[in-house]
Design a protein that fits this description.
8-stranded mixed β-sheet, 947 residues, homodimer, elongated, alpha/beta, 8-stranded parallel barrel
Chain lengths: 947, 947
């Protein structure tokens, strides 16, 4: 039997299911599922994503068996719908849409009304009795098809002229002017018939080809255009941003047309089963009478609310579907409930009412912002719709950032000048300089400006500017417009449909009331309320603890996770902020920032210029009291939680990057010739400072520095003990590559600790451990762990040395590597499991072989990256450490890691017992991979969670 | 039973054996062995090295049981020798000498004539009938003891005054002046008795302590002084240079005195069982009538030849021992033969004749220079004294350097002015500026000057200067003098006993004949002939193929080794030289040196300044013909042997380090503003160039460079094929860390190869492989080997990244690391097996898992280091590659690695079979270690040797 390339659906049955997203795409799989559920879906068929892959692999040719399968599927559609494609008497019109595994809104092409030809138009007019509708459908087909199929897919560059679509729009405008009408709807059937004629002539003239007058030709042209659009510029750019692979391919959904624009008893709408911006459990959507679905999504007309409960001041004057068509609304609301129960998640649905009959065109899991995701997860768990694990997995850890997003200072907001109000499409506050094109947004942002992108409406071509902007403001469109969808996906502040704004993109200004805002002037957005203010208002960090759902979710996460979560903090205020966010300790307290303080830097420089250990000691003695005070502050802020303090790390030349004047001044202070200062600076210069005299290499060469720092730490600890406060210092030796280095430093540290305890007559506990950030350290981790009480993986430097990349210089080639797919992600942002991960696993295994209770954490920037946190869990670490604002994210990511690992363990067990391959428990973000499997396989003991 | 701390020997029996060197030291073990063999040895005992270790561990106290064991051993000596220590009637005198595992000539202390006191002197005078001898012995004891025990071991710093030894020498000079005599021997018994009195008074005056008048006190004082001298400055410095560990400790040999200075029928001498400078199988030595051993070694008197066969023009007027004492000579010669057969190696022996009786004082394996080592190994193998494996192990690979040492151009030598003739103590030629103190030698060498150290005689205090000098020239001393021994150990050019020279160290000049040579003037030494020339003569590389023993040894080595040996060469002349030395291919041909050629650098800079790929291609097209010619030359020189060519590696900024003028000139050439040049240079600047945009990262960013280089290589290959010559190019992609990088470059290279074959209508074979020099590459080596046909480990960069050390900047801390023992050796000189070695083993194992026939080599500088070559063998590599002059060394080291591995395999097998621990087959240079064991254990397949 030939491979099945086409899956049919409709008439209460379907070949596919919702599980088959990889093969049928999200849209196709869900259409099949809805059909099987008995929900009214126009019949159709899905050409699989495999065909897309074969199409690109096979030099843009289809597999030979495709045509026959399409013919057969079309016959089924005809049977269900009672019409025939290309039939002169009772013609069936089809739509042709893309559908990838994951939604890529607006990034690929669609053709509607396929099948209208000189042969079928008369029959359709007869069967509908509506010639105006038919010619309107035909002119839409010509516009879409000539643009999408005949120009774009054919690869015709409209160099030196407008695109065909714009040319045809000008034709239509010309006719409207000639007829003296403003709205499209005022053109008559005859007008439209004439327009179709001139459209076809224009197409021939501009593109040099006849508009196809054959239903089959139109269908295959459209199918081809959709497949082509998978490799279109916009789609590729979107996948780059979202990190989606090129080899997924798209499916093509060919479906019978239903029309929301067949008069007053027709309509179209989109809705969410819950509010995607707040998470509130209310049916939430928009509809437009006598319109096609595209009209709602494009945001050209302001749509009406779907029900009364969700009316807003901006649309309460419009009739809701509930009011206009109560029976249909009830039918839709029942389908909504059914779908949510069936899919156990919030759905984003599209529907069309054709002459009083409801058709569902799409259902998919709805995008939501972080606030909504948190609330839905917690509430659905409360409703027993989903279990605890699933609730935890429902919120992407990065979405929590939105709850921690800055908000406008309420006091500033009270007295600020309101420019306009719109729809609150993306929560949070943002302030920035107004820019009016996506290119400007990108360019201004590239030079460090914070900008807000202001557009009448956005299109997929604007995505780069939307990404670069702090926030997005549009004058048109609703909550489901392009701008709203994209902003929500990114958790970006966004206000849409702000109709009062008169935006002049060419003049780079907007008028509102009597005001003019020009490019570069500050505006401020309250994306949670939908209010635009003139000027620059202060932003405040929110306190997520006012959000009850957030608090519940975090409580659930804390219960589920095994990994501890610490923070990287150098100052008491950061430490306090992190504790408020749930940090259980400090994983990395850098001490060099303290050296740069203006009060201290002189003594530090004196130390560097010293020629003897005695001189160095004298200079360091001046730094000691300051460092001690720093540590007292941090210990107090952490209230007895462990504090890992890293000894001095950067090369000394970083402290003596002096101007000529500063060098002279220093020479004066030290009463030494400036030549000596210059000579010492020259001597400290390094060709590769990253690989130079830094880390513990400083402490070995200048043990006095280690002595002073250890003394400051332990004197601070002693002070707290005397004040009857708890303290848990962990002294971390940086950049260790040999056990000898560690022992050298450890001896000094323990010696000072004993001295301080004796001098101050107190006792305190402390640990001495090391940062593992050099490949060699992972290889001799067993030796090092013989002495070190903890390891903290410094994955920034470990990534630099494992790859041989300088983070400062990688800008020269890393973008090309990501662009060309040589690296799938920036290894400095997300941990390279394949390489660096192996070193970490090796280091942990060897370290624990020598010291089974070795405490292991991570303190590189990866400690705040969800994928990396998942790896840390699998690798058996005890904790991760990240910046204060990432702590909530890390808590959730840690919980998800535990859930994922447990799921895998269950799957593994069931394989062992049944001998079968495990079914994916849920569609995880990525395959488990070799590393995970290896880890899981060899892990015998799970270290308990330490705090 | 208490632990045995003291081992007796003498009277035809001994507690110890020659195998017990670690416990008894070399001297003690061999004295025991000789005693057991029935060779006449003065009785004595050895205090073990363990006592030394316990002494330092126990705060410089002896284990309590030591005293009793010494007492018991002394009683045995007394019984054998028929005299009693401290006995007034028939007193026994003892010597006290150091003896470490390995000889450390002159680095530790000795005390002779112990036991002379006011109580024993009369008895000894009575028993010898020779008061002059007794008082001479006494004054020697006082001089030695006060210096070694009372001053040095007591830690008394002679600040502001001369040392006690010099003070006593002045006393003696004063007496000689007073008596009007020149030679010591002209002082009478009475003179010496008086001198002893004034010596003791002086000792009291200067050191504030009485000279001990008790035999036991003298003995224990001497034992302590020898132990103390293990941690003396000189001994520590020597161990640093030789790489010996501090924890070995020294044994102390306490032995009955015999006297070579008891008149005309007494004598002392040192000899080698074969000539240590040439290897010739002739008994070779020196003797002095009526002298103590120290007199020969110190080189104060020019000694006589031991036999007639080895007389030289310089000493043929002196009577040989063979002539003077034929019977004793025959006895000695028989002992010589016996010892060589017993030890199966050339022995360095010391003997004393006391009143016509021969006593052997020492035998040990004699040091030899490279030339001698090679000849002895080959000849002893021919004599069936040693087997093939042992013959191969007998030559330290670095000793081969001496055979490759430069020699003076014979033509220049003919017409050069001979300054003086001396003894040829170290072969080879050397030219340099004369310096007259060790400190000057070190300082001049540190600033890059080549110097020759000229001294009347050298002492252990001069070692640092001897090390820094190109060669050593002395006016005093024989072939066994300090200078000769040390120079021989290092394979350094050396002439000794050049009596014509009048050396004025203070005035920094020497007079000879009518000439004066002042500091900084050039002299040239022929160390093989012993001739000193005025001025700077040209040196020529020797052709080792004129040395038949070298040729035989290399033939044996080539048969024994499994590892191939290639060379690192960038130019045809280097390639030819390497082939002459036995290179089997080029393991690393760098292409960047070719870029710096003045003819090409302009085009290279133009390429760097280009703004488009087309401009870059145009500039590269100008470089192409040059590169092609380079490769044609190298391919021809290698005559079909494989040539591994590395693509461009350094960051581009290395090519545009321009002065302001050069920048202007370049701007003119390119017809572009100089600001653009400056901007591009600034853009290329990197903070850590070692980790920056280099290696294949260049080829990925600028594929045009790879294209051009591949084309140059393949067009050169095509040219040779057309000329019917063989060619085997191996294109090497540098700095690969991900398989994606390799694939990217491989695609280009293979594409160009196919193009060139088509264009030129020829076919040739080639390989594409990569340099493994980034830790990550070793971790994903299985992926990379899926595509790469060979790996070449670039251990320079791999060491940099594995340690996180920049070779350019490590000078800031590496010396301290070596000094403090944090690293036992410089990882850039000798491969760090513990860390970097693990990465290599991992890389090979994973690489071969994906491609079992993966060709693996090394091309870092470690490829010429014997220890590292041993590792490469154990790690299963196919070849090593090193600089041309290291090729013979590598061939021998590879053979030794094979011998060692086979030995271990045998030992391993016998363990398996017998369950016993293997006895060391020979005392290998170091323990097998974890890595070796692991490798051996898991290696299942030995890749065959490929060429």
């Amino acid at each position: 039997m030939a491979k099945k390339l086409v899956y049919s659906f409709g008439g209460g049955a379907a070949d596919g299911t919702a599980e088959m997203k990889n093969l049928l795409g999200g849209k196709g799989a869900n259409l099949a599922e809805m059909a099987t559920l008995g929900i009214p879906v126009p019949a159709g068929f899905t050409i699989t994503t495999e065909v897309c892959t074969l199409f690109y692999a096979g030099n843009r040719k289809y597999p030979p068996e495709l045509a026959a399968q399409v013919r057969k599927a079309m016959a089924r559609v005809e049977a269900v719908m009672g019409r025939k494609f290309g039939d002169p008497e009772n013609p069936l019109l089809m739509s042709c849409r893309s559908g990838a595994r994951r939604s890529m809104p607006g990034m690929m092409e669609t053709v509607l009304n396929i099948g209208l030809t000189s042969a079928t138009i008369p029959g359709l007019i007869r069967s509908t009795g509506n010639p105006r509708f038919v010619y309107d459908a035909y002119r839409r087909l010509i516009m879409m098809y000539s643009d999408v199929v005949m120009e774009k897919a054919a690869g015709i560059e409209p160099a030196g002229r407008d695109g065909i679509r714009l040319i045809l729009e000008h034709e239509m405008d010309r006719m409207k002017r000639a007829r003296g009408v403003v709205e499209d709807t005022h053109l008559t059937a005859e007008d439209l018939e004439e327009l179709c004629g001139s459209f076809k002539a224009k197409v021939k003239e501009v593109l040099g080809a006849e508009f196809p007058d054959d239903a089959g030709a139109q269908l295959w042209g459209s199918i081809g255009a959709v497949f082509q659009s998978w490799m279109g510029k916009r789609a590729i750019a979107y996948r780059r941003i979202e990190g989606l692979p090129d080899d997924w391919g798209t499916a093509v959904n060919v479906q019978a047309m239903v029309f929301g624009n067949m008069g007053a008893s027709s309509a179209t709408g989109v809705a969410f089963t819950r509010n995607p911006a707040t998470g509130e459990k209310l049916f939430y959507g928009e509809w437009l009478q006598n319109a096609q679905g595209e009209d709602v999504v494009a945001g050209l007309r302001t749509p009406s609310p779907i029900n009364n409960a969700t009316k807003t001041p901006g649309n309460e004057h419009l009739k809701s579907l509930e009011e206009a068509e109560p029976a249909l609304y009830r039918q839709l609301d029942a389908i909504r409930t059914r779908l949510e129960k069936h899919y156990r998640d919030m759905q984003d649905i599209e529907f069309t009412i054709q002459e009083g009959v409801l058709w569902m065109l799409q259902t998919r899991t709805g995008k939501r912002n972080g606030t909504a995701a948190v609330r839905m997860a917690v509430e659905m768990h409360g409703e027993r719709l989903i279990d605890l694990d699933e609730a935890l997995m429902r919120v992407a850890p990065t979405q929590l950032n939105e709850l921690l997003l800055p908000m406008i200072d309420p006091n500033a907001e009270k007295s600020a000048k309101v420019l306009a109000k719109g729809l609150p499409a993306g929560p949070g506050g943002a302030t920035g300089k107004a820019v009016f094109t996506a290119d400007d947004a990108e360019q201004w942002a590239a030079r460090g400006e914070k900008v807000i992108l202001v557009r009448a409406e956005t299109s997929p071509e604007d995505v780069h500017g939307m990404h670069a902007a702090q926030a997005i403001l549009t004058s048109k469109g609703g909550m489901t417009s392009h701008a709203a969808l994209v902003a929500r996906g990114w958790g970006k502040c966004c206000i849409v449909g702000c109709g009062e704004l008169d935006i002049d993109a060419r003049g780079k200004a907007m008028r509102v009331g009597g005001s003019v805002v020009r490019e570069g002037e500050y505006i401020t957005l309250n994306g949670s309320k939908g209010v635009v203010y003139l000027g620059r208002l202060d932003l405040l960090a929110v306190d997520p603890d006012h959000n009850e759902w957030y608090k519940k979710l975090m409580k659930l996460a804390d219960k589920a996770r095994r990994l501890g979560v610490r923070t990287n903090a150098d100052r008491p205020e950061d430490a306090r902020q992190a504790v408020a966010f749930g940090a259980e300790g400090i994983g990395l307290c850098r001490t060099e920032h303290m050296f740069f303080d203006p009060q201290r830097i002189k003594a530090v420089r004196q130390m560097i210029m010293a020629e003897t250990a005695a001189e160095r000691r004298a200079a360091l003695a001046k730094v000691l009291p300051y460092q001690r005070e720093d540590f007292i502050g941090i210990f107090k802020a952490m209230e007895g939680r462990p504090v890992t303090i890293r000894l001095l790390d950067p090369p000394l030349h970083e402290f003596v990057a002096l101007t000529e004047d500063q060098a002279r001044e220093l020479a004066g202070e030290l009463n030494t010739p400036v030549e000596r200062i210059r000579a010492r600076i020259a001597q400290l210069h390094e060709l590769n400072p990253m690989l130079g005299h830094r880390g513990c290499r400083l402490g070995v060469a200048y043990p006095e520095i280690t002595e002073m720092q250890a003394r400051a730490i332990f004197e601070a600890a002693a002070e707290l003990v005397r004040q009857k406060q708890k303290v848990a210092p962990e002294v971390m030796v940086p950049l260790v590559g040999t056990v000898g280095e560690f022992r050298h430093q450890e001896r000094i540290i323990r010696g000072v600790a004993a001295d301080v305890m004796r001098e101050k007559s107190v006792r305190f506990k402390y640990l001495v451990g090391t940062m593992i950030e050099i490949p060699r350290a992972t290889l001799v981790a067993d030796q090092i762990a013989g002495d070190a009480e903890f390891f903290s993986f410094g994955t920034n430097d470990l990534t630099q040395t494992a790859f041989g990349y300088s983070r400062d210089d990688a800008g020269g080639f890393l973008p090309a590597y990501l662009e060309q797919g040589i690296l799938s992600k920036d290894p400095f942002a997300s941990l390279d499991e394949e390489g660096v991960g192996q070193l970490i696993e090796l280091g942990i295994a060897r370290g624990r072989s020598a010291r089974p209770d070795l405490k292991v954490g991570i303190c590189g920037e990866h400690g705040g990256d969800p994928d990396s946190i998942d790896f840390c869990h699998r690798a058996g670490m005890d904790y991760v450490s990240c910046s204060p604002f990432r702590v909530p994210l890390a808590r959730l990511a840690a919980a998800q890691a535990a859930v994922r690992a447990a799921g895998k363990a269950v799957a593994k067990k069931s394989v062992k017992q049944s001998g079968k391959k495990p079914a994916g428990r849920r569609s995880g973000k990525k395959p488990a991979g070799k590393t995970a499997a290896r880890t899981a396989a060899k892990k015998t003991k799970k270290p308990s969670k330490r705090r």
